C-alpha cells in the first residue's frame, strides 16, 4: 500500500538513528511493527489475573506415562 505522510524532520532523524535503518521506508516499517508488538504485549498484560490455571502438571504427566 502506498501512503503519503508529512513528518517532522527532527523526529524522522531520531527514528532513523534508533532503528538503525538504511532508508526512511525501512525505519517507518520497523517503528510500526514495534508499536504493534508493544500493543500486543500490553493486551496480554491486561489479561493478567483474568485466567485461572490449575497447577496439575504432575497429574497430567502421570496420565501420559504408559502403564
Folded structure, characterized:
The structure is a single chain. With 67 residues, the protein is an all-alpha fold. Helix content is 63%, strand content 0%. The longest helix is centred in the middle third of the chain and has 23 residues.
User: How much helix, percentage-wise, in residues?
Assistant: 55-70%
What is the H/E order? Answer: HHH
| Low-confidence runs | none
Rg for CA atoms: 22 Å
Number of helices: 3
Determine the mean pLDDT: 90
The major β-sheet equals: none
Subunit arrangement of the protein: single chain
How far is the N terminus from the C terminus?
Answer: 58 Å
Strand content: under 5%
E-strand count? 0
Shape: elongated
| Structure classification | mainly alpha
Could you give the topology of this structure?
Elements: H1 9-19, H2 24-46, H3 57-64
Helix pairs in contact: 1-2
Protein traits:
67 residues, elongated
Summarize this, please?
By secondary structure, this protein is mainly α.
Amino acid at each position: 500500500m502506498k501512503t503519503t505522510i508529512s513528518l517532522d524532520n527532527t523526529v524522522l532523524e531520531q527514528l532513523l538513528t534508533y532503528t538503525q535503518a538504511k532508508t526512511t521506508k525501512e525505519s517507518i516499517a520497523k517503528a510500526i511493527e514495534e508499536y504493534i508488538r508493544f500493543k500486543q504485549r500490553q493486551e496480554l498484560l491486561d489479561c493478567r489475573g483474568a485466567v485461572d490455571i490449575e497447577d496439575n502438571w504432575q497429574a497430567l504427566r502421570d496420565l501420559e506415562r504408559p502403564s
